[in-house]
Design goal:
Chains A, B: Its cofactor is pyridoxal 5'-phosphate. 2 copies of one chain form a homodimer. With about 350 residues, chain A is α/β, with parallel strands linked by helices. The first copy, chain A, has 9 helices and 14 strands. The longest helix of chain A has 22 residues, at about 255-275. Chains A and B meet through helix 1, helix 3, helix 4 and helix 6 of A and helix 1, helix 3, helix 4 and helix 6 of B.
Chain lengths: ~350, ~350
């Protein structure tokens, strides 16, 4: 039976990426050594990281004056690196969920933080809009997609002050106008790679403007200067990122990823809205294409565990919702084929007929 | 031709580790999913990290009251995390090379740093001993093995104040009395795993004694509380660490690793001391068993490039010395078979005969 992995992250990657990574772990490009045991200073790995950086730039149309970094530590580490590098006096944060809340918490250690908007009042089921942004803040921090609650802001953020965006869970799923951001960052373990590498796209000239001393490893300038190799980078996670980036390019780039995301989301939300057993949790206009959250309708609410088991028997893997929302979450990252979504829909229909 | 990888890191790992990692990247334990795409919250990965933590404790005899962590970011990140968590007023550092110097630099951002000893006067070719340790310092920071210079302190450090030791390049190569340390840490990419994971062994009760606010991700208590899973950990690097730990246990544990390290070092240093073309760089009593550094004798000093090429033709890979020392460095980590060292020795003898 074909398995479809709807897990929220670490999550589905193209089969080609898994296979190429496994091969590199045994013998890298036929040179008789595993990439696991090769120096990050070797010309072979230099070519890997160079190509990965170049492909990120190409796929996202990153303008001149920006650097692309691949770092360790996870997006959670960025939550403190962002204020370390950018917060001199005051920062503005939009609170759209657990991760945004964590980002706010770290920023408060470094200066004044204004929560300019929040959707906490309705358990983060919508994306706040039309809020005021203080002109004197150093930056506006936003989270484009909220993995737990299934909300997403599909347009680029417009702001009179520099925008820094956590795109952990929707990077490379659509075209982005990078020039509208001072920094974009995220964990790679959803749309790009296995867990263990963080991507950062940062505008070089925005750095170096805070007066505090920054520990070397937490200063983005350190990593820019050394091309992400100030210290030993996570070699295999970066190699697997390269494989995914090549795959995205071969499939037609972010335009094609965008089309597929829309196709998957249209199909699945239509079924959620039609099926008498299920209903969506996020407000329609802010529905995420990456993390599609739904629960049982009131009439069927006791059947949650049954549906999970029912789906698992049909190869639908990882759809249990986050405890903060309950129900189900079908994460549909770039590598999820439309067949996976169709299999889930068939399963939902079969379940409906059964009851 | 059999290749022997003497690279300084990322470096040789047991073939079984490479193979098991590759298999997990395709299909983890036959469940039909790659470990690359599986949630770190799955019971399958929980079992992996639990076993890895337990094996670290078992192999090193870690006493009660210590935690073992697997983090991202690299040992270089620990250089600032150590003072963040432990430096209240003053810290003592022993400077034994480039990495120790980097650790000193980060600590200076957090308080007074006393460099209690340094071997910089002789390009770090020896390990300083019998230095005075200020009783009022919060901790003494040492580096047990210096990868670049090929020096190693093979005994446990005795100190009237808490000892924190960077064991990046000699962890698990010999028994250690962990109770003599407040913390031991290092990058895993030499004796434990692929690049991308850092190990930390820390005494729980030593934490929480500084008055500063610590960013969540830089606070060891965060990671202890969550069993290294506060955020998404580097899943595959941890899995490959588990494979190496299992391998070490199956081979006979650190006692056997110790015996092998001594055997390799005895053989290779004997040849370096005998062969008229080569000479060692570190003082004899402080010679590292992990990184064996040597240069051409004056008479043959123009033949360095020739020997490198000569060795490469015979399957000896990665012995070019670090630019700070020149010459050659044969890194002999746990996974280096004695046959590799014998092949290098044969190559050195053949080269001597040729000239």
């Amino acid at each position: 039976m074909k398995k479809y992995n709807f897990g929220a992250g670490p999550s589905i990657l193209p089969q080609e990426v898994m296979k190429a990574t496994a091969e590199a772990c045994v013998d890298f490009n036929g040179i008789g050594l595993s990439l696991m045991e090769m120096s990050h200073r070797s010309k072979e790995f230099q070519a890997v990281i160079d190509e990965a950086q170049d492909l990120m730039k190409e796929l996202l149309g990153v303008p001149e004056g920006y650097s692309v970094l691949f770092l360790g530590g996870g997006a959670s580490l960025e939550f403190c690196m962002v204020p370390y590098n950018f917060l001199e006096n005051k920062a503005a944060y939009v609170n759209t969920g657990v991760w945004a809340t964590k980002a706010v918490k770290e920023a408060k250690l470094f200066g004044e933080v204004v929560e300019v908007a929040s959707s906490k009042d309705k358990n983060f089921t919508y994306y706040p809009k039309n809020f005021e942004i203080p002109q004197d803040a150093d930056y506006l921090h936003v989270t484009s997609n909220n993995t737990i609650y299934g909300t997403e802001y599909l347009k680029d953020f417009e702001s009179p002050i520099p925008v820094i965006c956590d795109m952990s869970s929707d990077i490379l799923s659509r075209p982005v106008d990078v020039s509208k951001y001072t920094m974009i960052y995220g964990g790679a373990q959803k749309n790009i790679s296995m867990a263990g590498v963080t991507f950062v796209i940062v505008k070089d000239e925005a750095l170096g403007k805070v007066s505090r001393a920054i520990p070397t490893m937490l200063d983005y300038r350190t990593h820019i200067k050394k091309g992400s190799m100030f210290n030993t980078p996570p070699v295999i996670p970066i190699y697997s990122a390269l494989q995914t980036l090549r795959w995205i390019k071969a499939q037609g780039g972010v335009v094609e990823m965008d089309r597929r995301a829309q196709e998957r989301a249209d199909l699945l939300y239509a079924e959620i809205d039609r099926n008498k057993c299920f209903k969506g949790t996020a407000v329609k206009e802010d529905r995420s294409r990456m993390n599609i959250c739904f629960i049982m309708t009131d009439e069927y609410k006791d059947l949650e565990a049954e549906f999970l088991a029912f789906a698992l028997e049909r190869g639908i893997w990882g759809i249990k919702g986050h405890r903060d929302v309950g129900g189900f979450r079908a994460s549909c990252y770039n590598a999820m084929p439309v067949e996976g979504v169709k299999a889930l829909i068939a399963c939902m229909q079969e379940f409906e007929e059964k009851h």
